[in-house]
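In this supplementary section we document a worked example of the pipeline. Step one takes a protein sequence of length 138 as its only input; no multiple sequence alignment statistics are reported here. Step two produces a three-dimensional model, which step three serialises into structure tokens for compact storage. The input and output of this example are shown verbatim.
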Amino acid sequence: MIDARCCCGALTLTLPGPSRRVVACHCLDCQRRTGAPFGVGAFYPADAVAIAGISKEFTRVAASGGKVKSYFCPDCGSTVYWKAERLPSMIGVAVGALADPQFPPPVRSIFEESKHSWVQIDGAIDHFWQSSAAAKLG
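The serialised model returned by step three reads:
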């Protein structure tokens, strides 16, 4: 078991272990959500994640057209996890909330159409100009 948490520790997730479904997203919404040039999420089956603490929800329409609900700590503002309407059985967890430099790297890099030119994500991963919806997380 591993834990993800917000900066102040009020919102935590208990996860079954490292995920093999790690995605780097360069869409403008993830850039704004993280305040960084891209976001990285680890995806887990929703029924395998235990959530403790109070979160605030923000719903947006993704570039794919589906809704994404982001959950963040109402005290410190850290986004810890999200749920996508198009992947109802999965939860995306912000890899930064795990604070583990040894966490597995992304296997997929999406929305590279808005990737900063100086960002380099190497390795044996799949690259997508837009969404990887056609290649689901399976």
